[in-house]
Design brief:
about 475 residues
Length: about 475
Amino acid sequence: MGLRFDPMGGGQLKQALSAIIEAEKQPINALNKRKETEQTKLKLFSEFKGKFGGLQATVDGVIGQKKFREIKAELGDGEKLMSVTVDKDKANIGSWEFEIKEMAGRSSMISNNFSDPNKKVLGIGYINLELANGESKDVYVTADDASLYGVAQKINAETDGVVKASVLKDSTNPEKPFRLVLTSKKDGLENEVKFPQLYFVDGNEEFYVDETKGSKNGLVSVDGFEVELQSNEVGDFFQGVGVQLKQAKPGEKFTMNIKADYAKITDKVKKLVEGVNGVLDWVNKQNQVDEKSDTRSSFAGNTSLQNIEFRLRNLMHEGFPAHLDNENNFHIVHMSDVGIEFDKKGALTFKEDRFQKMMETDYDGIAEVVSGEKGFASQLKTVLDGFNQPQYGVISSSENAIQSRIKQIDQSIERKQMNLEKKSQALTEQFSRLQGALSGMQKQQQYLSATMGGGGGGNSLSQLLGG
């Protein structure tokens, strides 16, 4: 008997078809490997781009006197009496003597006593509030709100309300300990609220104002001058300086010092040095290769990145003009003069203590070296911006080149995949017709063998079919 082919989709036909298709896939597999290599390279470059962008952001944060400087407020023993916020772009350095004589106060009232804050015993009516600007406001209370908690909830639910409400427990009257308290939301005479009376009818218990307290302004002494404050929190008491009064202490004076924060400035320069080191270290690692390194997916020997490294290192050795010690003439200052220099391994080191002491001695001069118009940070920004131009810079062009190669590979894969599908379909049809023909021949062989009893015709057909 000759070679028998299995039904469509299996056996020798399936194996033969799979072998052909697999052979046709080899160019696509090779392209996919190239794509993986380029994607690995793009991911690696994104890491570099992140370090480069981080360095740019750090540089932008120290260029110019306003961005470079940091200031802080020191209150000494006054910290328990007052807190301070400082806008470094507006505040002036200096010291002032403070004394907090009186805190600003808020209008408030307290009601008579009740035994149960949940009982609806107040009836219906309204609370009238008279404001300092001459306007008045009414808060209406229905039968559903006619408990202390109900009134408090109704008042607090008003989005434009000028008072806040709370229910407190006053143990001076154990049988009726609950009372309603209304308090103005803001301090000072300008925000005073008067509570003339409560207008309620049909209540089971009397509801009235038991006691009130008026608003008042705060009173402080600054360098011996008395100053009234409309609130305990003044956002711009001095230019760029806000104060928040915590506690009045007549007769207790303290000094507020607004001064340069040298430690914070030093930390900013430290981050700048770390940013430069991050870029240099990344480029240096790309060039550390051996016989096992896969340079196809790295940037070993990349001249563009080597150019970035060379320019950064060269900049660190340049001198920057500055007026030192309040002199009129420029001095050329190198970064090594202020504590920033390369070690034996080629990394930057930063002597923080030295830098901070130099700032304490000559802040303006050191600030000019680092953040001045011709200072280190400005020159570094020029270098970085040149490499990072949107279209023609090294960063953009390198990234675009990798993305372009990936796109071209994707297009090639798509074309080859379409051709493979067409070829697979054509081969499948050809094999189907072939198998159909062979199947017919096998049936004829079986018929002849059965009718001729294994005669010569059958043997000839068997020989034709490979039997």
